[in-house]
Amino acid sequence: MRLENLIQELERQKPLKWDEKLPSSQIRMVLAENEPRFQFEGEGYLVINESCHNQIAEKLEIPLKYYHRMEEETPELLARNVNTWLERSEKDFFIRGLGDSVRAFLSDRYRVIDHLDVLYCALNELQAHDAEIEDCFLSETEMNIKVKSQRLRDFVRHKDDLIMGGLLLTNSETGHKALRLEPRLFRVKCSNGMIVEELVIREIHLGNADEADDEIFYLTLRRSIQGVFKGFGDIVNILRESTEIKVKNPQKMISNVVEHYRLSEGQRDNILMAFGAEPEYDQYGIANALTQAAQKEETWVKSVEMERIAGNLISLPIEEFKAMDEA
Cα separations (Å) of 138 from 192, 249, 286? Predict the structure, then answer.
């Protein structure tokens, strides 16, 4: 998704968003067309997003597997269970909606950090660093933005293999993830990306915010972006050091990586093919095979997860990495 399309979609959603803080006594699950819906204070029925169902189960301490079985097989039993535990909870809940749907069921201490506010604040800071938006992703539960900066340019093996520094910004308006800033590298010749989670910066969505808190928060966000960019040189040094850690048996190493991170056989084949196309018998080479394979993932989320695994592999202590080569 391009940046302009992301902004257009968020602006379209803005007037449709609503929030309610309600005591459990005013919340009821009802059935409409044999599907569970929410009803607040006797008003109309509201569709419950699937990701929101997970939060309801969590907040009411209903086992998730049992919750979804009731949802699929006996929705009337699910409604009775939910309403029973709502009656007993005697708590206030913070509920976020979009149009006629409920998208989040949260603690009343949840702090709202909306996508548009985060995006505009980040863009103001990114412009000062000659940074550009590489790609965007928006789902029911999160917004992701890949960024690269023209000022952060270096190489690992040789000067013709240029890498650029940047970051991955993640935010959730529904409590499914915290605001995250993760350092990300972009290998120019093959468009590979690598996310280095070890240096992640995170902001939890808790606490009742006022105007002064918001000002401090957005100032902190801008400083955090500055901090990620300042760490680019350290990451380059880590990558260069990884070229000195040799791999004896890349096929065995890749198989062990696949097993360790619970990847699929299809992902294993893609990693092996990527390594075969550019064999580099060291820690950096194995990580690059993962970042190349990430481009073949079917979804944006899976591709990003593969980039994180590559960054995690680079960050492993030497002993742990070598153990995968020898196992």
Answer: 21, 39, 30
Task: Read off the pLDDT of each residue in 231-256 and give the average, rounded to a whole number.
Answer: 93
- 3-state class of 21 per DSSP? strand
Angle at 9 between CA 295 and CA 19, to 5 degrees: 115
Range of the domain at 26: 14-107
Answering whether pTM is above 0.70, one says yes
Structure tokens at 324: 């995968």
Looking at the DSSP bridge assignments, the partners of residue 29 are 38
Q: What is the rounded average pLDDT of the residues 64-83?
A: 96
- CB proximity list for 327: less than 8 A, separation 6 or greater: 252, 256
Point out the domain boundary residue: 183, 211, 238. 238
- How would residue 191 be classed by pLDDT, with cut points 50, 70 and 90? confident
Q: Are 83 and 97 in contact (CB under 8 A)?
A: no
